[in-house]
Design a protein that fits this description.
The structure is a single chain. By secondary structure, this protein is an alpha+beta fold. It folds into 5 domains: about 25-160, Adenine-n6-DNA-methyltransferase TaqI, Chain A, domain 2; about 170-210 and about 335-400, Bipartite methylase S protein (Helix Hairpins, Orthogonal Bundle); about 215-335, DNA methylase specificity domains (Adenine-n6-DNA-methyltransferase TaqI, Chain A, domain 2); about 405-520; about 525-590. The protein has 18 helices and 26 strands. The strands form 9 sheets. The chain has a 4-stranded antiparallel sheet. A 4-stranded mixed sheet has the order 6-5-10-7, with no helix packed on it. The longest helix is centred in the first third of the chain and has 39 residues, at about 160-200.
Length: about 600
């Protein structure tokens, strides 16, 4: 039997601190469903004597606000009340922030004096609770909804009130950081939209440009081409992405097109243009384009984002576009190619800035998820002053963010890759993409506690953006590294180039010396061991976020549940003995 850590006790929800107790949610709260009058009393504008009737969708937008007579409002809530979305999708949304009456699709969750209000709020947002409610909903007959019996019976660990407040304060502070980033992202997006209305129409000109804009058909600037079925060329370990209307769906070693291209959905999602400047394959539901001389693909991409594509839909069922119709659409162009390029660069810079903010937000969300899993189960204690214990953790996050706020995620990854090439490559043994990807995962996992952006690829955690969206090319173009064929396999590999010292200066400034020494321990790991360690560790992260116990069987079950990973279990490096070895190694490396 597993040895119990001092200060902890074994319970039916796992190990929790000895001064915590196990309670059911129904013991610390009650739940009140909503009410509403007949539709004939609804008004879509505010009138004297009326009150807003809150619906689930109102927590996202005021566009559909509805009002009812105040004397018919049976159930009301304020902006601090915790509300539960009874129906989906998604089911079991935990909401707050509005005043008014609430309708039958909402439930008010009311904590009693035994549990802190904010601690209760975060307890309801636990991933394992969401999964339980979702499972119970699928099993029910009729309309799916929140199973109140199951919700009330869910057990949580409950610390003393002072520690509850500390935990809630820590998580609320992270929420505040995320909210501030969301506000900043929205502001940047609004600025971009305004600039697009001005610069992409010629209403406002960049300095140094003049002359009348010219209206032309899209067909004068490009030729629309059809994608093809990926059935015979798909290879999950391939080097080129296969694109669908939603983005990358798989990989291949045979590109359909290798030049800059603007892509638009032929069927299904027809209003999400894509831009690619590296080789790709596209499926038959996604058009790509061949750009003609004298035109900027990136400029056309931004023009495509201004078109109301549904106005050109030719189907009554699944939305569809026709190539000839697309080519016949008239849009305005600047008189010169150089102005097209200059305008496109303005929006590229804006997109890069927004992408960096979104990446920061995603990191904060992952940090918050990790904190919730650790704090709400007692794995990390906040028994001291919240101003000291919590501030220490948050200072690390803020410092990490401030170190990177002057450059984009792509530049950051270019520097990380360059550092790894410098550390682990030699003329005889250039660093492979496989190994730098695994080293990158481990480096981020150690330094930031999370490894963001890694996909579940056949060879383990993989970050296609490094290859296809900039970092590799940035490192090569800046002459930090050079791409060479591996002497044996002939696959892409990397050596240092003349300006590698510039990248090392950046890396040292952003990451420091300690991580450089830490990553050294993996120099002599075999490829199989790197694949096993990173795959098992990512599985552990996901299982812990789901509140599940980490065992060889639970890791194997998780790997088997991922289509791209399940074949791994046939490999020797994923034997039971080796999975246990990698579980132990992950705990040794990354346990807090």
């Amino acid at each position: 039997m597993e040895k119990i850590k001092q200060g902890y006790q074994r319970t039916d929800i796992g190990l929790i601190p000895t001064d915590w107790e196990v309670v059911e949610l129904g013991d610390v709260s009650k739940y009140e469903g909503g009410s509403q009058p007949y539709l004939s009393y609804f008004s879509n504008r505010f009138l004297d004597g009326y009150i807003r009737l809150i619906q689930i969708r109102d927590y996202k937008t005021d566009k559909y606000a509805v009002y009812i007579p105040s004397n018919l409002a049976r159930k009301t809530c304020n902006e601090k009340d915790i509300m539960i979305g009874r129906y989906g999708p998604p089911i079991f949304q935990i909401l707050r922030g509005l005043n008014g009456a609430y309708n039958v699709a909402l439930i008010k969750a009311i904590p009693n004096g035994k549990i802190d209000h904010s601690y209760f709020y975060f307890s309801l947002k636990r991933e394992d609770l969401f999964q339980l409610i979702e499972l119970l909903s699928r099993r029910s007959s009729g309309q799916t909804g929140v199973d109140l019996v199951g919700l009330k019976a869910f057990k949580i660990g409950l610390p003393m009130l002072s520690e509850q407040i500390n935990i809630a304060t820590a998580l609320s502070n992270i929420d505040a950081l995320i909210a501030a980033l969301n506000k900043k992202i929205t502001k940047k997006q609004q600025i971009k939209q305004g600039a697009m209305q001005q610069l992409l129409t010629g209403k406002k000109r960049l300095p140094g440009f003049s002359g009348d804009w010219v209206e032309k058909t899209i067909g004068q600037s490009l030729t629309i081409k059809h994608g093809k079925s990926q059935k015979d060329i798909e290879d999950f370990s391939g080097r080129y992405p296969i694109l669908g209307t939603g983005g990358i769906i798989s990989f291949t070693n045979i590109p359909l097109y290798s030049k800059q291209s603007v892509l638009i959905g032929r069927k299904g999602t027809i209003d999400k243009p894509q831009f690619f400047d590296t080789p790709f394959w596209t499926v038959d539901t996604l058009f790509y384009s061949e750009i003609k001389d004298g035109y900027s693909a990136k400029f056309i991409f931004y023009k495509f984002n201004q078109i109301d594509w549904y106005a050109y839909n030719e189907a009554s069922g699944v939305p569809s576009l026709n190539a000839k119709v697309i080519e016949s659409i008239i849009i305005a162009f600047p008189p010169t190619l150089i102005e097209q390029i200059a305008i496109a660069q303005v929006f590229t810079d804006m997109d890069n800035e927004i992408s960096q903010l979104e990446a920061d937000r995603n990191k904060y969300n992952q940090i918050k998820a990790g904190m919730m899993q650790q704090l709400l189960t007692g794995k990390i204690r906040l028994t001291g002053s919240v101003q000291t214990t919590v501030a220490t953790e948050q200072t690390k996050i803020v410092e990490l963010n401030s170190k990177k706020q002057t450059h984009t995620d792509q530049i950051n990854e270019a520097v990380v890759i360059s550092f790894l090439v410098n550390k682990f490559s030699s003329v005889q043994y250039p660093l492979s993409r496989f190994r730098y990807t695994k080293y990158t995962y481990l480096l981020h996992r150690q330094y930031e506690h999370v490894a963001c952006g890694f996909k579940k690829h056949a060879a383990g955690p993989y970050k296609p953006e490094n290859r296809y969206k900039g970092p590799e090319n940035i490192a090569i173009k800046n002459k930090y590294i050079s791409k060479v064929p591996n002497p044996k396999s002939k696959k892409d590999a990397f050596l240092v180039n003349r300006d590698i010292d510039k990248a090392l200066v950046y890396f040292n400034e952003w990451y420091g010396a300690e991580i450089q020494q830490w990553i050294e321990q993996f120099r002599y790991f075999r490829n199989d061991d790197l694949e096993a360690l990173t795959t098992v560790d990512e599985s552990i992260c996901n299982l812990e976020n789901e509140g599940k116990v980490i065992t060889v069987n639970s890791v194997k079950q998780y790997i088997d549940s991922i289509p791209q990973w399940k074949e791994k279990l046939r490999k020797d490096c994923f034997s039971d003995i080796n999975i246990q070895k990698m579980i132990n190694k992950s705990r040794e490396l990354f346990s807090l």
